[in-house]
Design goal:
By secondary structure, the chain is α+β, with helices and mostly antiparallel strands. It is built from 6 helices and 23 strands. It folds into 4 domains: about 50-65 and about 305-415, conserved putative lor/sdh protein from methanococcus maripaludis s2 fold; about 65-75 and about 220-305, Efflux pump adaptor protein, beta barrel domain (Elongation Factor Tu (Ef-tu), domain 3, Beta Barrel), CATH 2.40.30.170; about 75-100 and about 195-220, no CATH class; about 110-185, Helix Hairpins (Orthogonal Bundle), CATH 1.10.287. The chain has helices at about 1-35, 40-45, 110-145, 150-185, 230-245, 405-410; strands spanning about 50-55, 55-75, 75-80, 85-90, 95-100, 105, 185-190, 195, 205, 215-220, 225-230, 250, 260-275, 280-285, 295-315, 320, 325-330, 335-340, 340-345, 350-355, 360-365, 375-380, 415. The chain has a 6-stranded antiparallel beta barrel with strand order 2-11-14-13-12-15. Mean pLDDT is about 80; it is low at about 385-430.
Length: about 425
């Protein structure tokens, strides 16, 4: 009897446990089902998209052409000896600045002083002979005219002797001048003003006019030039602007962030390099503080023009589609409107808009991939501390970027087209 009672109690416990398990599973399924989808009211509510915006501004927009180049000295002079001799004095130090005419070195002058003395002595002797011959010639002419004591042939012969000695005296004078010139060449002076490089010969060495290596090299650093290249398609535009005014040129460091010097465009080369399709241009810089050095690599930015009162927006706001370029404009009810625009030009991180939007409107600069016409948005104004495409501050704001800054110079220059053309008609990169 007790065995049957225990068996009945065990079955009851198992049934209660099974019922409790089923109830628990049903409760969990109900809870998860209630959270698996939004309620009808929540599903029908419009979603708000977080976007970054910037106002449309009006400002002067400088247009730059960017090229790679290297610095070259305005003058580079390899100073060599013009006579043979022993170098007895060196009057310069490496790295000194030499002015034109400064004494740099002295070669032993004694051999050339002896040559000068010999030439002067020979000149003195021949001059005495010439004076005697001239006196005899005058006597012969007088005798021929007064008494006829001499013949005409004697007079003519004496005249020829005078002419011969005159030629000898002139040759002697040339020898004297040559000896003086060689003597002056013993004193080597700076042919141009510039900075002296490393000394390539020491005092006591014999130097020759035929030496292949110079004694020193002088490079003129003030002013200094830079040779840079631009695509051949841009040369005609540069030439047209050069005829109107002098074009400003800025030289930047290798990382294109630090401005080193500013100057002006000097000339354009007379031919195009067919291997690269580029033309060479030369710019000149005052280089008063020696910011530039010969053979230094520089990034050159040529200011082509400045567009006055241009309607500009951040370049990140421009989108391109099958119908051309467009932007998302923020409407007063915080919805997005698709607006076709005509881009006149793109410079750095700014784009000039020829038509489609007007100043004081607001455009979306980040988050456009989530938008469509009529989307509800929550706009946030761009700030200087943001990254990515949001590093462009609204044009005209206090934090607006300088057109000459490094970030602006990284962009491309583009020529606009109508938004109804091909997807790439908004910009034609140059």
């Amino acid at each position: 009897m007790s065995l049957d009672l225990k068996k009945t109690n065990g079955e009851l416990v198992r049934k209660v446990f099974a019922i409790a398990t089923i109830l628990l599973m049903t409760l969990l399924a109900a809870c998860s089902g209630s959270n698996s989808g939004p309620s009808p009211a929540r599903a029908n509510a419009p979603q708000t998209i977080q976007v970054t915006v910037a106002p449309v501004g009006r400002q002067d927009l400088p247009i730059y052409l960017n090229g790679l180049g290297s610095v070259e000295a305005f003058y580079t002079v390899s100073v060599k000896s013009r006579v043979d001799g022993q170098l007895v004095q060196v009057k310069f130090r490496e790295g000194d600045f030499a002015r034109k005419g400064d004494l740099l070195a002295v070669i032993d002058t004694r051999p050339y002083q002896v040559q000068l003395d010999q030439a002067q002595a020979q000149l003195f002797r021949d001059q005495a002979s010439l004076r005697d011959t001239q006196l005899n010639y005058e006597r012969f002419k007088t005798l021929l005219q007064d008494s006829g004591a001499v013949s005409q042939q004697q007079v003519d012969t004496q005249k020829a002797t005078v002419d011969q000695l005159e030629g000898t005296v002139r040759n002697d004078q040339a020898l004297v001048d040559n000896a003086k010139l060689n003597l002056s060449y013993c004193h080597i002076t700076a042919p141009e003003s510039g900075r002296i490089g490393l000394r390539l010969v020491d005092p006591g060495n014999m130097v020759h006019a035929s030496d292949a290596n110079p004694m020193l090299v002088i490079t003129q650093l003030q002013p200094i030039t830079a040779i840079f290249t631009l695509p051949e398609d841009q040369l005609q535009t540069v030439a047209q602007h050069m005829r109107k005014r002098a074009l400003q040129v800025d030289a930047y460091s290798r990382d294109d962030q630090t401005k080193l010097a500013n100057g002006k465009l000097l000339t354009i080369d007379n031919q195009i390099d067919q291997t690269t399709g580029t033309g060479r241009l030369k710019a000149v810089f005052d280089n008063k503080n020696n910011e530039l050095w010969p053979n230094q690599f520089v990034n050159v930015h040529l200011l082509l023009e400045t567009r006055k009162d241009a309607t500009v927006i951040p370049a990140a706001a421009v989108q391109r589609g099958p119908q051309g370029s467009y932007v998302y404009v923020v409407k007063p009810d915080k919805t997005a409107e698709v607006r076709p625009v005509n881009i006149a030009i793109t410079e750095g991180n700014l784009a000039e808009i020829a038509s489609g939007i007007s100043p004081n409107e607001t455009v979306v600069t980040d988050g456009q991939d989530k938008l469509q016409a009529g989307s509800h948005i929550e706009p946030h104004l761009e700030g200087p501390g943001q990254t990515g495409n949001r590093n462009t501050v609204a044009p005209g704001s206090p934090n607006a970027p300088n057109p000459n800054s490094g970030s602006n110079r990284q962009g491309r220059r583009s020529q606009g087209g109508p938004p109804s053309s091909s997807p790439n008609s908004g910009t034609a990169s140059q």
